[in-house]
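Anyone up for a design puzzle?
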């Protein structure tokens, strides 16, 4: 397989040349300068983070992340004297982000969980529903229609009368007789 060697950088008139890796290191903050900044200012940056956050672990995480981010972007920090300022600003921004995440987490956790019925309660509810359905099937057709429209469809007595084409008095009579029959059927042993 042929080996392809990189083309030497030639300067074409009118086209700016790309900077080499050595040029970018000399133009930005060097790793050595960042290492010295770390040694000299780590505790001060930790103190800054501790004023914004409340626990030591979060402060250490924020300061470490700030150094990692500035290290990744060190070629953009043109003036090495501004490295500390970039680090301070990064610590403040990361602390704000950590606080926002905490607040959001607290908002989500503060919502109460919906009450869940136990399996036993769910089984009893199912048995009651089954018993009610059996009792409803045992009613006269008009009683069942009136009760379903009145209580399950949430209609008024007048709306039930219009829907079934019967008088309002008949709706009341069928409803009261149907409820009485349901009460007897639900109290009877299964």
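Challenge accepted. My sequence:
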């Amino acid at each position: 397989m042929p080996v392809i060697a990189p083309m030497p950088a030639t300067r074409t008139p009118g086209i700016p040349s790309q900077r080499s890796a050595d040029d970018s290191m000399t133009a930005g903050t060097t790793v050595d300068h960042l290492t010295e900044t770390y040694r000299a200012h780590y505790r001060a940056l930790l103190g800054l983070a501790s004023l914004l956050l409340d626990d030591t672990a979060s402060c250490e995480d924020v300061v470490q992340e700030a150094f990692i981010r500035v290290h990744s972007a060190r070629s953009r920090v043109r003036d090495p004297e501004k490295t500390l300022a970039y680090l301070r600003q990064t610590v403040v921004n990361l602390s704000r982000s950590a606080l926002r995440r905490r607040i959001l987490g607290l908002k989500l956790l503060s919502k109460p969980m919906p009450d869940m019925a136990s399996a036993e309660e769910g089984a009893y509810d199912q048995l009651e529903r089954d018993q009610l359905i059996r009792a409803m099937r045992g009613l006269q057709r008009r009683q069942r229609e009136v009760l379903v429209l009145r209580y399950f469809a949430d209609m008024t007595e007048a709306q039930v009368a219009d829907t079934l084409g019967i008088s309002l008095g008949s709706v009341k009579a069928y409803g009261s007789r149907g409820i009485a029959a349901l009460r007897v059927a639900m109290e009877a042993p299964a």
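A detail worth pointing out: Confidence is low (pLDDT under 50) at residues 1-26.
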